[in-house]
Specification:
This protein has 7 helices and 12 strands. The strands form 2 sheets. Strands 4, 5, 6, 7, 8, 11 and 12 form a 7-stranded mixed sheet that branches.
Length: about 210
């Protein structure tokens, strides 16, 4: 099938640096990139670039609302969020992995993706996503690469069937591990609150917390 969006194959186990560099150049110049994660394919943008974030809303067909952020390390979490003892324990147990943690945002956090001064962050278990985030400073928009209200994409073809021509580049590393969105929890306080159950089940979380 012919795609208007440029597609590049990339290894999930040993991502090619030249391909990561091509993608990061696009992101740092305000462009959008479809990329694989461990849960679903994501629609990436530089979260500190206001126009790029607005493009994400436009491409997905949704109004401004909080966007999840993927990060390259736990250190990056401390840079943009107030990490509670509960959140730190969750990170130690479940990161890298399919758990998005909502925390109070620091002043250094990207303003366009916040919700009531909170930020949702996740360290994915996927080398391409981690390298891509690291290549643009440690943070990348991590919303699913689909139209608002449509199924989340398990592979690059699923993503392009919805977003073809509206994104600058798509990185293809085959089907994702889970094919289900991450679980989202609020760890701003001392008590865990589950916002959305995804790959990780509530029973699993409660077993450790």
């Amino acid at each position: 099938m012919y795609w208007k969006t440029k597609v590049l194959k990339i290894s999930s186990s040993n991502p090619e640096p030249n391909i990561i560099n091509k993608a990061s150049t696009i992101l740092l110049n305000g462009g959008l990139v479809i990329y694989p994660t461990d849960t679903v394919y994501g629609l990436g943008a530089d979260p500190f670039n206001t126009e790029a974030v607005r493009k994400v809303y436009l491409v997905k067909g949704r109004g401004p609302s909080p966007l999840p952020i993927l990060i390259d390390s736990i250190e990056s979490a401390f840079r943009v969020a107030y990490v509670t003892p509960l959140a730190e324990r969750l990170m130690e147990i479940f990161w890298p992995g399919p758990l998005t943690i909502v925390l109070k945002a620091r002043s250094e956090a990207p303003k366009e993706v916040l919700f009531k001064y909170t930020i949702g962050i996740r360290m994915p278990n996927h080398k391409v996503a981690l390298m891509l985030a690291r290549s643009i400073g440690g943070l990348i928009v991590g919303t699913s690469a689909n139209l608002h209200g449509h199924p989340s994409p398990r592979n690059v073809n699923d993503a392009l069937a919805q977003l073809n021509g509206h994104v600058d580049l798509a990185l293809d590393s085959g089907d994702v591990i889970h094919g289900i969105a991450s679980t989202v929890v609020d760890a701003t306080g001392s008590e865990l609150k589950i916002i959305r159950e995804g790959v990780l089940k509530a029973e699993t979380l409660k077993k450790y917390i």
